[in-house]
Amino acid sequence: MLAELLVVELTDRAGRFTAPGLASMAEAVHRQLRPQLPVDYVACIEAICAEGGRLAAAVHADRVAGLALWRIIDNTFEGRRLFVDDLVTDEALRGRGVGKFLLGWLAGEGRRAGCAVLALESGVQRQRAHAFYFREGFSIPSFSFRKKLV
Question: Which of 2, 12, 37, 144 is the most exposed place for a label (fewest CB within 10 A)?
Fold first, then answer.
């Protein structure tokens, strides 16, 4: 595990980047998971975060080692939950505890916010991620369905 990881919240509650120096490093890591992100990454993330999303990075030696895009959601199924839109570790640092560290931090944030559940979705093709989530105590309680509208 990497020593001296720390979490830096990259956006405020209004959605603005609070650590602009880390934005380009966060973008590079984020694109490893989501290469289709718009060219104007900052505007995209600020729009998501203006509607309740939050972006946090695990930083090691002044470098973004991983990041999480997350939000608090209330619903009738689980009550209050912390939902992770994106969780990604820099490819060069995978298997070194960054994802585990971020999940631990997210669980703490969820507890502080009164959440009963930490939830996420993972593409069916991401078998390594699934194995990781199972090791971290996640289960698959339901199917996720989609219907394209455009």
Answer: 144
